[in-house]
């Protein structure tokens, strides 16, 4: 029997090359962006295959991040990483407080309103400054604020989010 694969959580993407010594530019999905640098090992999806790579060096550079991963010592080798998704195992994430959720936990959950009408599934989230917004795709796309008074329950076990949202909105 093969071991159970641990769930990966997408944390960023390699977006370009930086210099000639194997460094890459990284776009981080974390907030703050440099929180990605707290993880000494990254899971990288390179051409459809996942591989584990230790972070040899990394830092904030201007408005972005740069990193050099073990085994990539020059620009030509690092070029293979451009476009790679960066993930960590879910078990590596810090414990969250009661009532808080990682976006990755919410993506894919079914959204139902208080009248038990299914509105769709969470495609992704984005932040507006005032609050985070669920992008719910069903028979049409809905943008639903993720906040008190609107989100009544998140049940990760059942895979649902219950919201006070009219199906016609």
Break the fold down into its secondary structure elements and pairings:
Layout: E1 8-18, E2 23-28, E3 41-46, E4 49-61, E5 64-69, H1 75-78, E6 85-89, H2 103-106, E7 110-113, E8 118-127, E9 132-137, E10 141-146, E11 151-155, E12 160-163
Parallel strand pairs: 7-12
Antiparallel strand pairs: 1-2, 1-6, 2-5, 3-4, 3-6, 4-5, 7-8, 8-9, 9-10, 11-12
CATH architecture of the largest domain: Beta Barrel
Write out the strand line-up for the largest beta sheet, numbering strands in chain order: 1-2-5-4-3-6
- Strand-and-helix sequence, N→C? EEEEEHEHEEEEEE
CATH topology type of the largest domain: Elongation Factor Tu (Ef-tu), domain 3
The CATH homologous superfamily of the largest domain is called: RimM
Tell me what portion of residues adopts beta-strand conformation: over 45%
CATH secondary-structure class of the largest domain: Mainly Beta
Task: Characterize the main sheet.
Answer: 6 strands, antiparallel, barrel
